[in-house]
Amino acid sequence: MQESKPLTLRRNFSWTFAGNFIYAACQWGMLVVLAKLGSPEMVGKFTLGLAVAAPVFMFTNLQLRTVQATDAQQQYLFSDYLGLRLIATGLGLVAIAIITFVASYDWETSLVILLVGLAKAIESISDIYYGLLQQQERMDRNAISLMIKGLLSLLLLGLGVYLSGNVVWGVVGLVIAWTVALLTYDIRSSVLMLHQMPLPRWHLRTLVKLTWFSLPLGFVMMLISLNSNIPRYFIEQYLGKRELGIFAAIAYLMVAGNMVVFALGDSASPKLAKYYVAGNSIAFRTLLLKLVGLAVLLGGTGLFVSVIASRQILTLLYQPEYAQHTNLFVWLMVVAAIGYISSFLGYGITAARYFRIQMHRSAFISIILLITCLWLIPTLKLQGAVIALLIATVMNAVINLGVTIHALSQLKNQNNNAHALATKNLP
């Protein structure tokens, strides 16, 4: 049927880029709404909620969407992925409640964190349906879902903050928006792909096997999320929620390039995986080099714009007090440029199914970030946070490059061995 027919890479990218563009713009728009209608402290509370909830769900998600999308040999059913995701999401909500209780935040901050956690739980369930559509190379439906979620979340969060003057009601709007998208569109999309209502399957041996296989990626994604949020924890601890709000608002401008990276990476992942499984090292390397080349172009463009117009951009988008941190903006764009290259290399590593090495890499980067943040933020303040991020991002890119080179050499060796064996068996 037409509804389940795969799209070309170009069309998948176009749809994914459009969906991510609108979604990212709306996510950034939420920060703008909080900055314009509220204060840096309000932005700080919302950002803290994301910083607490995101690493938890990055771990409990086990990166099942990517595992599913790159499951070129169809080892598991969608029902297995859905069943494991529902269990893990419930555990994630419990973990966030425990963290919030132990941390002893004030009641409003605690409520914001819990509500953000609920929103992320709903997002996690939508994400597993995205994995099915990504595997079927129907990124158009994922893109439409992102557009619905982005526009609804911006509208309802803005309405909640405007009517109440409180960030709590804004986050309630976010929960409602993501629930509506899940129930009215995401589940329906899976029905169109499978031609039936998908139900979770809880086969113990299968769930244990899938969990064990995906666990390294769960640790990796948790550590990656921690790596982006570790500076935020230290900023909140040493400098307060106001400075955290300013840092988070400026740092979010890095997302302009990230949406292109994610769009291309998600669209290219199934093809990269198929190339690697088929032993087509030339196609795998060629596609990956094209992605890295685009990353260089994106990073260079962002850095150039930040150098020539940082003050005007920050004043226009936020408030004049944010424009006092132009140097911070420029250095964050340097971090972003290196991060784009590292991300595309990471997509190649994942497509080649090098999961466990990513866990060790991310743990190492986390340790580096903890040490540098503890050392630099108390003395250099926000600039110290950027320097810590820069050091970690460079090291991450170097490690990803090394693993990519190793994966390609292994593929080349396999091809040479297969060719030698075939030649030997010739009559």
From TrEMBL:
Keyword set includes Signal: no
Domain of life, per lineage: Bacteria
Membrane protein topology class: Multi-pass membrane protein
Residues spanning the membrane: 12-34, 46-64, 84-105, 111-132, 144-162, 168-185, 206-226, 246-266, 287-308, 328-350, 362-380, 386-408
Alphabetical keyword list: Cell membrane, Membrane, Transmembrane, Transmembrane helix
UniProt xrefs under Pfam families: Polysacc_synt (PF01943)
GO CC field: plasma membrane
Compartmental location: Cell membrane
InterPro entries given in the database record: Poly_Biosynth_Transport (IPR050833), Polysacc_synth (IPR002797)
PANTHER family: INNER MEMBRANE PROTEIN YGHQ, PST FAMILY PREDICTED COLANIC ACID TRANSPORTER
Protein name per its UniProtKB record: Polysaccharide biosynthesis protein
Native species: Richelia sinica FACHB-800
Lineage of origin: Bacteria, Bacillati, Cyanobacteriota, Cyanophyceae, Nostocales
